[in-house]
């Protein structure tokens, strides 16, 4: 039986004539941070809500530890919605303790946990303030504390870094990494691709309700197009036009950026560049996650 794995297995969901999810499938492993990225409306939030039981799937299954995710198992999930899911007029500590009790903790343990997490997330001085009186960044910290206060076995977070300043991003990143290191699977969606690339062990890219690319950053970058940057100061325009599999995408001064086909020979590019004179730079690059994301989400979906 899998150990602490969250499995999303061929989940589909329609709203009338609109297909929100089409056999969405991925697994988040124990101790893994999984980045879930896609354009607005791609199906990320719908997937998370189905995992939480807030929505029902038309087909497919969500499993935890190899078994269908039931109500009891869902109580062990820490969930952070993109929209505010807090009681605005309730004090921070009271709210966290209340939410912890709803997840089965005793009143005493809930109060201790609320104190620990407000301190950990830099909210100690705000415990007795109403949530609505906090800054948006501090409200976001309270939202994370609400997801963590009952010591969940899995974390599902929808845009957790939205609206945070750099210090708060560092605090939240450290907390999520600590949870992963303790064996908790963490899945979060985000439009901040630099953060996703820096933090996540694996990444899934979603387009039109389907998982279209999934793997580590290195694996995804290896699947993306290779570019070459060539600085040939004496080269004339069009020097690379005859090289098979090489496409010029940008010329900036003496530097030319080319995209290579999968079967292209970069040495043929170098030979063509040297034929024009000296070459001061010849750099082979893999796409960043942002570039890869842009390429994937703008591809024509399969018929």
UniProtKB/TrEMBL annotation:
Residue intervals of the ABC transporter domain? 6-233
Q: Which SMART domains match?
A: AAA
Where does the source fall among the domains of life?
Bacteria
Which InterPro entries does the UniProt entry name for this protein?
Answer: AAA+_ATPase (IPR003593), ABC_transporter-like_ATP-bd (IPR003439), ABC_transporter-like_CS (IPR017871), DrrA1/2-like_C (IPR025302), P-loop_NTPase (IPR027417)
Q: Which UniProt keywords apply?
A: ATP-binding, Nucleotide-binding, Transport
* Keyword flag ATP-binding: yes
Query: What would you give as a GO molecular function for this chain, any one?
Result: ATP hydrolysis activity
Family according to the record: Belongs to the ABC transporter superfamily.
Q: What is this protein called?
A: ABC-2 type transport system ATP-binding protein
């Amino acid at each position: 039986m899998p150990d602490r794995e969250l499995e999303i297995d061929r989940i589909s969901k329609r709203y009338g004539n609109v297909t929100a999810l089409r056999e969405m499938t991925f697994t988040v492993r124990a101790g893994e941070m999984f980045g879930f990225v896609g354009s607005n409306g791609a199906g990320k939030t719908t997937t998370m809500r189905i995992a939480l039981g807030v929505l029902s799937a038309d087909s497919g299954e969500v499993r935890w530890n190899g078994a269908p995710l039931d109500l009891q198992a869902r109580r062990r999930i820490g969930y952070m919605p993109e929209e505010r899911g807090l009681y605005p007029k309730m004090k921070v500590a009271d709210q966290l303790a209340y939410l912890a009790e709803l997840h089965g903790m005793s009143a005493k343990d809930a109060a201790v946990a609320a104190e620990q997490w407000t301190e950990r997330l830099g909210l100690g001085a705000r415990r007795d303030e109403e949530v609505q009186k906090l800054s948006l960044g501090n409200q976001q910290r309270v939202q994370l504390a609400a997801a963590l206060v009952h010591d969940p076995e899995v974390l599902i977070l929808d845009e957790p870094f939205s609206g945070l300043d750099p210090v708060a991003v560092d605090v939240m990143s450290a907390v999520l990494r600590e949870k992963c290191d303790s064996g908790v699977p963490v899945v979060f969606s985000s439009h901040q691709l630099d953060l996703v690339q820096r933090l996540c062990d694996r990444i899934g890219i979603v387009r039109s309700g389907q998982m279209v690319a999934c793997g580590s950053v290195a694996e995804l970058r290896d699947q993306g197009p290779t570019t070459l940057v060539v600085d040939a100061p004496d080269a004339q325009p069009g020097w690379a036009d005859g090289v098979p599999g090489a496409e010029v995408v940008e010329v900036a001064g003496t530097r030319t950026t080319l995209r290579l086909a999968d079967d292209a020979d970069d040495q043929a590019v170098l030979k063509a560049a040297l034929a024009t004179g000296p070459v001061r730079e010849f750099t082979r690059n893999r796409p960043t996650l942002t570039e890869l994301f842009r390429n994937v989400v703008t591809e024509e979906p399969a018929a």
